[in-house]
Amino acid sequence: MLYEHPTGHVIRTARWAESLPPEQRPVFTQVDSLAQAAREVKAVWKFALTDENIPKLQQFAQHVGQTLGLECEWSWHDQVDIARAGNSKGKRLAQWVEAQGLSMQDVVAFGDNYNDLSMLEAAGTGVAMGNAVDEVKARANVVIGENESNSIADFINRNLL
């Protein structure tokens, strides 16, 4: 993950990443210019933008969607993910499942925010976390406890093992 300024979201995510085993940690790299870095990389999956001024961020996301034809999905109350149309968790999950010779009906997906909707709806069972926004809960098949509890493990033990 490239970032220009260590915003609150970057700091929170980097701290969370430190709790993961080294082989699972995302790599955070501060760059002088995101624009220059974007020109130099081989591929960009998405841009994640965060701002404390939510109305300004909402207006920017709307402008990007209307003028550039990109999709904007909210991954937190103060973060919007901007990507090419179709670059979604649901689409990528479906591609991977198909490549494995499996069926999406056999997939259980867990999520808590708008950027998880495509994945929750593509999976055979979409599970919203208790801390999810209400619209995500309404579109999931099941709602369980919050993501900082043992609710995922409990769901797996009760329903899949």
Task: Write up what this structure looks like.
It comes from Raoultella terrigena (Klebsiella terrigena). The protein is α/β, with parallel strands linked by helices and 161 residues long. Helix content is 40%, strand content 18%. It has helices at residues 8-18, 34-40, 54-68, 89-99, 117-122, 134-139, 151-159, and strands at 2-3, 29-30, 47-50, 71-76, 79-83, 108-111, 125-128, 142-143. It has a 3-stranded antiparallel beta sheet, with helices on one face. A 3-stranded parallel beta sheet has the order 6-7-8. A two-stranded parallel ribbon has the order 1-2.
List key phrases describing it.
three-stranded antiparallel sheet; alpha/beta; 161 residues; Rossmann fold; 7 helices; 2 domains
Kindly provide the radius of gyration, computed on alpha-carbon positions and rounded to a whole number of angstroms: 17 Å
Q: How many separate helices?
A: 7
The overall average pLDDT, rounded, is 89
Shape designation: globular
Structural class, by secondary structure, is alpha/beta
- Find the count of extended strands (DSSP E, 2+ residues): 8
Largest sheet: 3 strands, antiparallel
H/E topology pattern: EHEHEHEEHEHEHEH
Strand order of the largest sheet: 3-5-4
Number of domain units: 2
What is the CA–CA distance across the termini? 35 Å
Low-confidence stretches: none
Strand content: 15-25%
Tell me roughly what share of residues is in helical segments.
40-55%
